[in-house]
Fold this protein.
Amino acid sequence: MKKLNEILCHLKNNPEFRRINTQKTIQKIIELLPLKMKKGVKFAYIRNQIFFFVLTHPVYKMEFEYNKSLINDLLKKSNIANIDEIRFFVTNKIEKKEKPYETPSSYQERSYGIFENSIKDENLHEKFEEIRQIIKNS
């Protein structure tokens, strides 16, 4: 019986699953980019020997155009074959940002203020009675 690791290595080396290896390499290239560039990449893909970067904002497009030589160097080191050109474009779909969960500013009181105040210190006894009145009034 083969181990799972052997099966995965066999699938990885099989030419039919070349796209899986290419996508993994593309993700590695994105991870190797500097942080200011990596934040702007939505995803990347290869089509017709052209490496496409889909960006989130037009400012990132300018940054990528300026650092095109850096990306070419990364591509040469990663051994991706048949890349003739690199292109960048900004997606026209706006990402919806999730609104953070807002906690209510006040909670509904669950207590009725019925408790025994057996504290001997006068100051603390008065404080507890003030708390009891606040609870009863709310």
Remarks:
- The first helix runs from residue 4 to 13.
- The chain has a mean pLDDT of 82.
- The chain is about 45% helix and 15% strand.
